[in-house]
User: What shape does this take?
Amino acid sequence: MRQHDFGPTATASEIRALTPDPRNVEDGVREIVARVRAGGDVAVCELTAEIDGAIVTPGRLRVEPAALTAAVESLDVAVADGLRTAIANVTAVAEDQLRGRKATDLPDGQVIDVEELAVRRAGVYAPAGRAPYPSSVVMAAATARAAGVDEIAVCAGPSSPDGEIDPAILAACALCGVDEVYRAGGAQAIAALAYGTETVAPVDVIAGPGGPWVQEAKRQVFGIVGIDGIAGPSELVVVSDGDADAELLALDLLAQAEHGPDSLVVAISQDPDMLELISVAVQRLVVDRPSVQDAPLALVHSETIQDAVALADEIAPEHLQLVGPLAEELADRVRAAGCVFVGPAVATAFGDYVTGSNHILPTGGAARFQSAVSPATFRRRMARVSFAPGAAARLAAKGAPLARAEGFPVHAESMERRA
Assistant: This one.
C-alpha cells in the first residue's frame, strides 16, 4: 500500500497484515450464485451434494416444524439452559436499545453499556459527471458533521481539462466545514478513500451517490471501509387516487427523468382517467423541456387504491409520492420506500434540495432493507461489558456447556477459570 506514514493508521495496517490474506473465492462464489439464480431448489440441492457431500431433495429443503420441536426436546439440559440464557440476555439488550436506554443491568450481574460513537474519518463522493451536484455534498457532509465525525474528506471529479473542480461544489464543501477536498472522481477516488495514497489518508466510511463505476468500486471496497449503500439510477413512483392535478404529477415525473435515461418513473392509480391525463400532460410538457431524458415511464392501473400502494411497496422505490385524500390516508401502510412524500404540495424535487430529508436514498428495491444516509451511516455502536462480583461464576455455568457443544473447549475453560 503506497501511502505516507499516517501515524497509528499505518502501524495498524502493518499489524493487520500479519494475518493471512483471505482466500480468493470470488469466481467460485459467482458461479454458485449464478447456478442458484438460474436453477432454484434443484441447483441448491445439487450444490449441497457436490460441496457438502449431503443428499437433500427439493421436497426436503425446508426443515419440518416437528423436527425443530424434536431438536429442543432432545437437547442436553445444560446446553438448552445456556441457549435460553443467551436468548434472554441478547433480547433484553436489544429491547433497551430500541427504548433508547444506554445501559442494561442483567440478572446474573453483568452490565452491558452500549455507546454510540462517530467514526473518525468519513469520505464523501461528490458526483460531477453530467453536472456538478453540490446538493449531494450537503446531504453527506452536513450529516457526517452532525453525526460527530472528526474529519471529512470530499472527492470530486474535475469539471475542466485543467483539473479544477466546479466552484459550486467547492463552496458547498466550505460551507459544510469539510476538512479536505481532492481533485479525483470515479472509481479511482473510491479506491483512494478506501486504501489511502501518498496524499489521501484512508477513511472509515464512504458515502455519496455516483455512476455505475463509482457504485461498483464502493461494492468492491466494502469490508475495507463501510459504505452508505449501492445507489443506482433515480426512481420515482407516484400513487394517486384520481383527485389530483395531473399536470403537477407529470412535472414531478419529468423532474426525476432529468437524472438520466436510466431513471425509472411510474404512476399508479385505480382511476384510468387520471393515468390518461398524466400521459397526455407528460407528452405535452416534455416537448419544451430539453433537460428531460428519455427515461422509461410506466402507467399502471390497479383495481383499488390499496392495491396501488401495495404495488408501490413491492417496487420499494427510491421516492414515493402519495397524492389525493385516499392515497394519503394509506401513508402508514408503506414499509419499503427510500422517502415518502405525502400530499399535493410535496414534490420529490423539494427533497432533492431543501426539505432536510436526505436525498442519498436506496434504489433498485434496496429500500426493503436499506435506509437513507443519516447520522447512523457515520456512527457505530460499541458495547462495554462489566461484571459484578459472582457474575462470572453464574454465567460460566451457562456459557461453558454451550461452548463445548460448539466444539470450543478452551472457550469453556476461559469462562470457568474466572469462576
About this structure: The chain has 15 helices and 13 strands. The chain has a mean pLDDT of 94. Residues 26-52 form the longest helix (27 residues). Residues 41 and 58 are 6 Å apart (CA to CA).
